[in-house]
Amino acid sequence: MRTTTTTGVVAAAALAIGGLTLAPAQAAAPGGITISGPTYPKPEAGDTEWSPYVSETCGFEVSFRDATPAADYDATIASATAPGTPLDLVNWVDYDGRGNGAVGVDCGYDDVFLVDGETYLVTVHEYSARGIEVGSTTSEIVYDEVGAPVDAWVAVDGVRAGDTLPTARAIDIAFEGAWEEGSTFTTRVSVVPHEVVDSDWEVDEDPFVDVLNRTVTGSAPVSRFSLPHHLGGDYVFVSVRADKPGKAPVVVTFEEPFEVVTSPP
Fold it and tell me: How far apart are CA 124 and CA 141, in angstroms?
């Protein structure tokens, strides 16, 4: 799932998740298609260009091999509890014309998203040159994400923040519940000048400047930061990402920026 919360008094921060474990490791159809995987998204530098958030890349990829290559391929994903209702989560299907291909599945948005602990059916469909389906293979995948808190918010002096944040004060990203031990966390606090917003974002280069961008491995992310006085009037975005090998990443984002208010000297 990839959803976000508004700033202020909204109860929960968003948990954006992607990646899962496969059971069984491979699935083959009588027609000769074998599905393998999945692999899990890792944060990359390019993911954050022109974005104020940590990498929001999520979902998973499976590869497939067809012993008798077809002219075209497509893929669908559905919950095992509703196999006849495809979910609009397949990002892309790629193949090389020699029977090798891959499927990219997104973790979802809003009302359509992958749910931790649920089993999903990924089906690769093969088609003739006339567009007629000539076979398919389905693989079961159990979604498993990094253990994460059930709620998150931004606080000043222990009080949940509204839609503004002060300068020269300790600000905390607070959580209800624990993170999974041994995860790698990235915390990003990014600022955009108010001039950029006032000019309807008419800029020629990435306008976001990081106040904090820290990656640590352990039991919790870096969660405290402060804002210098010169940022008064600007806007701040806050986000956290957790990754762990073999598990789906979790991303906490606050959709709307906080306005920075200059504290009295």
Answer: 13
Query: 204: burial class by Cβ within 10 Å (0-12, 13-18, 19+)?
Result: exposed
Mean pLDDT of 200-216: 86
Q: Which of 226, 235, 225 is nearest to 258 (CA)?
A: 235
What percent of the chain is modeled with pLDDT above 70?
A: 88
User: Residue 128 CB: number of other CB atoms within 10 A?
Assistant: 12
What tens digit of pLDDT does each residue of 32-69 get?
Answer: 899 998 888 888 777 888 899 999 988 888 999 999 99
In tens, the pLDDT along 169-185 reads: 999 999 999 999 999 99
Element (H, E) at 61: strand 60-66
Whole-number Å distance between alpha carbons of 13 and 4 = 6
pLDDT, position 197: 78
Closest to 95 (Cα-Cα) out of 73, 124, 76? 73
Q: What would the CATH number be for the domain defined by 151-261? A: 2.60.40
* DSSP bridge partners of 243: 184
Calpha distance 186→248 (Å, rounded): 15
Number of Cβ atoms within 10 Å of the Cβ of 58: 25
Could you state, in order of their start, the residue ranges of all structural domains in the chain? 19-142, 151-261
Cβ-contact 127, 71 below 8 angstroms: yes
In this chain, the answer to whether the domains covering 19-142 and 151-261 adopt an identical fold is: yes
Under CATH, which architecture does the 19-142 domain have? Sandwich (2.60)
pTM of the prediction?
A: 0.81
DSSP string, 90-125: EEEEEE-SSSEEEEEE--EETTEE--TT-EEEEEEE
C-alpha–C-alpha distance, residues 22 and 83, integer Å: 17
Is the distance from CB of 86 to CB of 101 less than 8 angstroms?
no
